Amino acid sequence: MNEEKEKFQSDDGKSFPGRTYSEVLLKPLFEEQRNYFFYAMLAVHYAHTIMLSEQKIIKKTEAEAILSAIEAITIMDKDTFTYTPAYEDLFFLVESKIGELIGEDLSGKMHIAKSRNDMGEAMYRIVLREHLQDTIDLTKTLAATLLSQAEYHVETIMPAHTHTQPAQPTTLGHYLVAIYDGLCRDIDRLERARLSVNQSPMGAAAITTTGFPISRERMVSLLDFEGLIENSYDAIGAGDYLLEAAQSLISLMTNIGRWVQELLRMASKEVGLLRVSDAYVQISSIMPQKRNPVSLEHSRSLASSALAEGLAVLHMIHNTPYGDINDTEDDLQPHLYKGFEKADRVLKLLNAVMITMEFDKKRAHQQARENMITITELADVLARDYDVSFRKAHRKAALVANNATALKKELYELPVDTVNEWLKDVTLSEEDWQGIVDPAIFIQRRSITGGPNPDTVREMIADRQRRSG
User: Fold this and answer.
1) Crossing angle for the helix pair 27-54 and 333-356, nearest 10 degrees?
2) Number of H helices, E strands in the chain
3) What is the pLDDT of residues 84-133, one digit of tens each?
4) Which of 85, 64, 87, 75 is nearest to 42 (CA)?
5) Kind and range of the H or E element at 56?
6) The pTM is what?
7) Which long-range contacts does 67-72 make (Cβ < 8 Å, 24+ apart)?
C-alpha cells in the first residue's frame, strides 16, 4: 500500500494543489468563474476602489492607477485567462494581472476592507439579477402574446376539461386569460426574487465587517443594488436569495409545463383544435403525413430540465451550515444560470408558437356541443325557472344524461318531448331546451365576474391591459 501511495503522490503531487484536485475541481471552477463572473468581479473591484478613495482610505492617485488597470483588464478577451496551478482561482489571477500593470503593492490596496466572501456574494447577486431580469422580460413578452390571442378569441367556443374529461363549454379567450393570470403571478414571484437578490453584501468582508471607515451604503449605489444587507453575518451566511430565485424558476417552469401539456393535447390529430405553424413542426423521417409539434415537446422537456436545475439548488443548500460554505458558492451558481437560460429558451419558443398558432373554431364549437357538457344548464334552468330544488334538479339532469348515453345520443339530438317524458313532472318549452343544449347560450349566461361570457372576458382583458401599462 505504501508503494502505491508513493507512486500516486509522485505523479499527483504532495503539495497544494494536487493534480487531481486541479484537474477535477480547480480548472472546471476557474472556467465557470471566468465565463460567468469575470465582468462582475471587475465591477466590484472598480466600485470598491472608488469607495476607498472617497473615504480617503487610499490616495486619489492610487485609486486612479488601480482604476486604470481594471479598465485595461476589462477590455481584454476574458478567454485568454486560462487556469494555471500557480493561481488558485480567477480572483488571484486577476489580482496578479493588475499587479503586472501597476505593481503588487498598489494592486493589493484594492483589497483593503474587502474579502473574497463579500465580493463573491456580490458577484453572484450581480450575475443572478441579470438572469432574473432577462427571464422577467421574456415572460412579460409571452404574457402580452397570450393576452392578445385571448382578445382575438373571446368568442371562440371550446370545451373546458376537469379531471381530463370534457366538463363545460367555455371560450379560448377565457382559457388564455386564465393562463395569462398564472403567468403574471409567476412574474410577480420573479420580481420579488430579483428584489431579494439585488441587495448589497459589500462591506461585510469575511463575515464581521472591517475596522476601516468604509461606506457600505455607497457600494449599494455604485453597484446598482436596491438595498443593503445590514447584518454582516446575514450578508455572508444566508443563502435564501438563492432559494427564492430557484423557487421562482421552479414555479414558472412547473406552471408553464402544465399548459404546454394541454396545448399538446389540443394539437393532437384526434383532438385537432390547435395547429402549430409549419415553422415549428417537424415531419417524420418515415411517415410523411406526420406534423410533429416538436416545438411544444422541446418546451416541455426544457421546462422540466430548468426545473431540475432549480431543484438542484434547493438540495445543495439543504442541511448545510449557516455561514460561508462552498455548497452555496461556485459549485451551485451554474445550476441557477443554466436553469434560467433554459427557461429563456422555453419562453422564446412558446412566444413564437402562440403568436403564430391557428385554432379550429368550427371543430372546437362542435366539441363543445358533444359529451353532454351543457347538462349543468338543465339543472340550473329547472332550479331557476321551474321552481325545482337544486338537488332534485341535479338528479333529473343526471337521469337525462344517463338516458341519452344509453341511446348513444347527444343532448342536441334529443327532441324536447322525449326529455319531458323523462322529467315527468316538469315540461320544458322548446325554447328552453334549445337554450340548454346550445354552448353559446351556456357561455352567454355565465356573465358574473370571471365567467366566460365574451363581454365579461373583454372586461378582464381591458383591465389587465390597463394594469400592464
Assistant:
1) 100
2) 20, 4
3) 887 878 888 888 899 999 999 999 999 999 999 999 999 999 999 999 99
4) 75
5) none
6) 0.93
7) 68/101, 68/102, 69/98, 69/101, 69/102, 69/107, 70/42, 70/45, 70/46, 70/98, 70/110, 71/46, 72/101
